Amino acid sequence: MHTGSMNMKRARRAVLAAALAPVLGAGLLSGAAPLHAAEPLDAVRARGTLRIGLEGTYPPFNFRDHRSGELAGYDIDVARLLASRLGLKAEFVTTEWPAILAGLGANKYDVVVSQVSITARRRQSFDFSQPYTYSAPQLMVRRNEPATYASLQDLKGRMLGVGQGSVYEQQARSVPGIEVRRYSAAPENLQDLAFGRIDAALNDSLMVAYLLKNSQLPIRAGARVGAFEPIGIALCKGNPRFLAALDKTLERVRADGSLKRISMKWFGVDASQAP
After folding, report:
1. Staple 164 to which of 29, 98, 168, 274, CB 3.0 to 4.6 Å?
2. What is the pLDDT of residue 51?
3. pLDDT of 2 above 50
């Protein structure tokens, strides 16, 4: 009786699974991730919008234009271009940098287009598109600063400002003796540098070039202190169709020159290609 009862229960479960599979998706019944979580591309297309997470305080990549109050920058233009080529409307969600990848994991947006460097550590938790930017870490110092820092080693015993949770913070902390001050947004970092609260700041070389051209702050470019790094679009793991669609679109806008034109507009150089 016990064996017969177990067989009947298994049979009922099999019938129930067969009936529910078209509705719930086989992934739910097998213990895998739900279909809508594993493949959001159809949901994004049905919605008609691509929700894009970004910092919004990181010129020239993504920031509020002081005249219009609208979001502007390289990342904004790239995100709008990609969304348009995918037949979608770009919808921007601004988030402080330290929480930006956590917000992606919590499904607050579909992708992050905010100069996220592709690192082995980040790849453990997220997938990345092919790179759309290449940039190197660079120091910034006060314009009349007599000290010269040729490398991070020269900053031992000095105060260095970095973005909280950034690859620059990791780079600074890898050198014992540097006093690291973390900032949630770039403007506060640069203001503290200008007013002498820190000795130097470490950030993106493309940002440094832009600031020297457009900012009134008394700062200047310092040494480049690392290799060029690939920067991609971050998305949640386990979305191969979504990732393939982003990569294919990036390949097209790179091939037709659209990505280069955006880079030239903001930087005066083609930062979309590996140096």
Report:
1. 98
2. 98
3. no
Topology of domain 137-224, CATH: D-Maltodextrin-Binding Protein; domain 2 (3.40.190)
Q: How far apart are CA 216 and CA 186, in angstroms?
A: 15
39-134+230-267: CATH, from 3.30.930.10, 3.40.50.620, 3.10.20.340, 3.40.190.10: 3.40.190.10
Q: In the chain, where does DSSP find H-type helix?
A: 2-24, 26-30, 35-38, 41-47, 74-85, 100-105, 120-123, 167-173, 186-194, 205-214, 240-255, 258-267
Tell me the C-alpha distance between 177 and 93, whole Å.
Answer: 37
Find out whether 106 and 94 touch, Cβ atoms under 8 Å: no
pTM > 0.85: yes or no: no
